[in-house]
Design brief:
Number of strands: 14
Shape: globular
Helix content: 10-25%
Oligomer: single chain
Radius of gyration: 22 Å
Order of helices and strands: HEEEEEEEEEEEEEE
Number of domains: 1
Distance between the termini: 49 Å
C-alpha cells in the first residue's frame, strides 16, 4: 500500500513538473522608446522649448541601433514607466500607450484606431511639471515602414523589426495644436513623437 501511494505521488509530481515545463512562458514586461518634442515651430504662443521626453534610442539611418527601455527600470538614472496595449480587428489596430520618466514628464496616446496605410487620428497628451499638460484629440499617426520590415541591430544582433502587430507598434505622431489647459488666450504648441512600444497587452 505504501509503495503504491509513493508511486502515485511520484507520478503526480512528474506530471506537474512536465505541465509546468510545457506551459507558456511568463509575459515579458512592456518596453519602449520615446523621442518627443514640443515647441514653437510656427506657434508663437507656445511656452515649451523643444525637447520634451527622451527614453531609449530608435533605429534610424544615422543610429542603426534600437535600444528600448523596459518598464520598471531606469534610463539615465531615472525611473521609467511603460504601459501599452495593441489589439487587432481586421486591418485596424487599436492602441493606448504611455511612457514616463521620473522628474521629466510623460507622453500618453489614446482613442487610437490606426491602419498600416495612410494616417490615422490619435489623442495625445504631453505632461510635465515645469510646463503643464498639453493635449490634442486629433493628432496624426503614421506607421513606420508600412507593410514591411526594417534592418536594425537589437541587443547586438542584426534584426528585422516589424511595424505594427498585436502587442507592438512603431510609428510617429504629429500634433499641430497641442493646447495647454484652458488658457486665454490659448497657448498652443507643435509636437512630434517618434516611438516604439513592444511586449504590450494584446487583448
Amino acid at each position: 500500500m505504501a509503495k503504491t501511494m509513493a508511486r502515485t505521488l511520484a507520478l503526480i509530481t512528474t506530471a506537474i513538473l512536465v505541465a509546468s515545463a510545457c506551459s507558456d512562458p511568463a509575459p515579458q514586461p512592456p518596453r519602449g522608446v520615446i523621442e518627443a518634442t514640443l515647441g514653437k515651430l510656427g506657434a508663437p504662443n507656445c511656452p515649451a522649448s523643444g525637447d520634451w521626453l527622451n527614453i531609449g534610442n530608435l533605429s534610424r539611418p544615422d543610429i542603426p541601433v534600437t535600444q528600448p527601455v523596459q518598464d520598471g527600470t531606469t534610463y539615465e538614472g531615472k525611473g521609467v514607466t511603460i504601459r501599452c496595449r495593441v489589439t487587432q480587428t481586421g486591418n485596424t489596430f487599436a492602441f493606448t500607450a504611455e511612457a514616463s520618466m521620473a522628474g521629466e514628464g510623460s507622453v500618453r496616446f489614446s482613442n487610437a484606431n490606426v491602419t498600416l496605410d495612410g494616417t490615422s487620428k490619435v489623442q495625445a497628451v504631453f505632461a510635465r511639471s515645469d510646463y503643464g499638460r498639453f493635449s490634442q484629440d486629433d493628432c496624426e499617426f503614421t506607421a513606420y515602414h508600412p507593410g514591411g520590415t526594417y534592418d536594425a541591430t537589437v541587443d547586438g544582433k542584426p534584426t528585422k523589426l516589424p511595424d505594427i502587430a498585436p502587442g507592438r507598434i512603431w510609428g510617429k505622431v504629429t500634433c499641430t495644436k497641442a493646447t495647454l489647459g484652458d488658457q486665454d488666450p490659448p497657448k498652443v504648441c507643435n509636437g512630434a513623437v517618434n516611438f516604439r512600444f513592444e511586449n504590450c497587452e494584446q487583448t
